[in-house]
Amino acid sequence: MYTNRLANEKSPYLRQHAHNPVDGYPWGEEAFARARAEDKPIFLSIGYSTCHWCHVMERESFENEKTAEILNRDFICIKIDREERPDLDRIYMNYVQAATGSGGWPMSVWLTPALKPFVGGTYFPPDNRYGRAGFPLILQRITEVWRDERAKILESSATVLDQLKKGEDPGAGPGVVDAAMLERAYLQQRRSFDSRLGGFGGAPKFPRPSVYNFLLRYWKRTGNEDALDMVTTTLIGMSRGGMNDQLGGGFHRYSVDEFWFVPHFEKMLYDEAQLAVSYLEAFQITGNAAFEDAARRTLDYVIRDMTAPEGAFWSAEDADSAPDAAKPHEKSEGAFYIWNWQEITTLVSEEHTAWFGYRYGMERDGNVTNDPHHEFTGSNILFAARTISETAEHFNKPVDEVAVALAAADAKVLEARSKRPRPHLDDKILTSWNGLMISAFARASAILSDPTYGTAATRAADFLLTTMLQPDGTLLRRYRAGDAGIGGMLDDYVNLAGGLIDLYEATFIPRYLEAAIGLMRTTIAQFGDPEAGGFFASAHPDAAALVKLKDDYDGAEPSGNSVALMNLLRLARITGDVQFDTEARRLITAFAGRAASSPHGIPQFLAAIEFDLAEKREIIIAGTPSVALHKELWKRFEPFRVLLQASPEIAAFRPEVADMTAAPEGARVYVCVNFACQAPVTTAEDLAGLLN
Q1: Which of 469, 499, 504, 579 has CB 3.0 to 4.6 Å from 513, enough for a Cys bridge?
Q2: What's the predicted TM-score (pTM) here?
């Protein structure tokens, strides 16, 4: 079996390609030096281990010996795991999008030996199809251009990165970040909202929790019910659709249709984390138990299937898997999750199969009627077509009887599914995504009064602070198979800091807050722009030498600058430290032009602005709150408050809390609004009176 240098890497994505006949290198000086010495262009392939089309291109091209021969002869081939190096991925993705009008993964970019791009694209088929030139033909043409038109390539590539640098300036130009700008941002989201099915825009529909974060905070400040309705309608639509794993919990990456029905089946940790928070906040606002159930099922899935023995969380599960153990190489998308009618009848009675099928929208011949690739033909994607009550009414049975039978059927079908070949698990631990997940578990533990979730949050936080945080205060990004490595990016620092702030508010353990403060100080020192404000995405020399990016788009993941702004504003209120407030003001100024011109692109940034503009509320607890007080503190959606417990550690930067003492009968709670404190209360009833 052929083995290349990728076998020595920790990345699951790179290791997937370790036995391709392509002479693959990881990103690094060894490959660069060879490109310079042999005067060859670099073929750079960027993807991730749970990427469906990355798998397709590997099977079609990278495992093909004739294609590999061309690649090895004419190019130096480098692979990057975009999840390990999002900074490099962003640089070259910007180029591909500018050059072709679109982007995605696998990403294919050809570089000069000086690492400057001159041709780019995404997936290329093995021959001429889909209206695209075949990959071998592309390679041949690029080889000819490199040989015969080298001067033109070098001239054009020399200007590419300069243009990218200009395009990356978020713009401190004209723009006022105020309530009127937030109103415009709301109206932009309103225009794209699907009022019938939920979501924004048409198919494919992606979850974008940063939009929900903004809209819920906009609703809280303004009372605009449409903003709340947009979020709750979307969350209900997603939770009922096939995009939500109805048996095992957790959300798939996106829906290929407008109905939230047919998903792209991969599961990403950052989706689970952010969506769990959205459902928790919707539950706080509405009291609707369906939102609580969706949050719990998501969190329970992460505990069951995505938690490493060390306590931190793995990254993703693939969309593709084999239909059975006897055919391990015949992988197809969704095979782990789809069912035919006959399979269910082998697990439960015919009567209960009918109930199960009615509940989950199954058809005897399959419920996917428009499947161009025929992967789902004859099969069923489970979705919440009817409630248990509706099912009982349809079959004229008592609700309790049907509920018990369906719970038993769910358990049997889930057990049978667990015996199928599982999708590939990307078992690397990323600090950034773990920070988001810590936040979700911390909030869940407090909102739902469930210590199981608190344990999940603290175990992960303790692992990261022990293993990924270095003695000098810097962070590492990736841990896998006993190896911690790769210097942290902006998102690692700010997402972990944000998660630790949430964990402090849920537990009142001072060391989590102290760690968050330290991380944000290091963020300012390592990533800050002392001239223009804001933060660069990476401190890695190889990325900085190409383009110094400032993240500004809140997409599937929130941008580093948006999370940094919220952290700075919260810590300024918590600690009273002027440095945090100063850096927050500079960041707002740095992104004022971007906020004014394209507010729909930065909803998480706008959520932080909502925090800044809203009434200032601090809640300080002296002593240990009773169960009743704790529930009262967390039963409401209060996104604009900060929550502290009086302690010597807090008094070190907030001396006034030293005078706040517990009552003989229990805790005292001080509620301060716009820096004026009310008389302390000791009962849940009195606290409710202050908070309502």
Answers
A1: 504
A2: 0.96
